[in-house]
Amino acid sequence: QVQVKESGGGLVQTGGSLRLSCTASGGTFEDYAVGWFRQGQGKEREFVAALSPTGGTTYYNDAAKGRFTISRDNAENTAYLQMNNLKPEDTAVYFCNAAHSITAMYHEGSGSWGQGIQVTVQG
Known about the structure:
Blueprint: E1 3-7, E2 10-13, E3 18-25, E4 33-39, E5 46-51, E6 58-60, E7 68-73, E8 78-83, E9 92-99, H1 102-108, E10 112-113, E11 117-122
Parallel strand pairs: 2-11
Antiparallel strand pairs: 1-3, 3-8, 4-5, 4-9, 5-6, 7-8, 9-10, 9-11
């Protein structure tokens, strides 16, 4: 099964931007749907965004709509989460997931998970 690893996290000021990357290996990346989830301290893991294997279908939670954009470059085996107008409530560990279907990912937590990266928004 495909393995994924996140990068690009860090500390930003309120209103700033970050782009997270999810790099895949060990599988045919274009066969997998990709999603981003996050878990704030003391909170449950929540869905953020997902897209289909070719990038033609996207989903966002209400907090992400209008601020975050999920995309992928299958030639580079990489998916991205562009985060704009960041708020303190976006502070969390962000996880990438690659699964055979968005349904299984969202409802069952299936697929391959990255180790997570910290995003901290302050000010």
